Amino acid sequence: MKKNVVYLLIVLGIIFLALAIYYWVTPAKSLPHFFPGYLAGSAHKHLKHGLAALVLAIGAWVLAWFWSGKKPATSTPDKD
What's the CA gap between 70 and 48, in Å, rounded? Predict the structure, then answer.
């Protein structure tokens, strides 16, 4: 179960990175109509939307890194 979550977070990070690049290179008039930032006839590129997607990608990868770590060793109580 833990491995599946890590793989899912890695894939989500890749998707968010691709979305960030897409926002940076595509003008607002060429975005799909359901994307935030679509504006008919505008040549403006949404740098802030791309930056937000990049932050989400990095966040997903950091979370995957933390989830993939080893469990801390549990200490057993001393028997006296």
Answer: 36
Greatest Cα-to-Cα distance within the chain, rounded to the nearest angstrom: 79
Reported pTM: 0.78
Question: By residue range, what is the domain housing residue 25?
Answer: 2-67
pLDDT in tens, 14-51: 999 999 999 898 888 888 878 777 767 777 777 888 99
76 within domain boundaries: no
Please check whether residue 26 lies inside any domain of the structure. Answer: yes
Question: How many domains, in total, are found in the chain?
Answer: 1
Percent helix, percent strand, percent coil in the chain, to nearest 5? 60, 0, 40
The tens digit of pLDDT for each residue in 54-71 reads 999 999 999 999 998 777
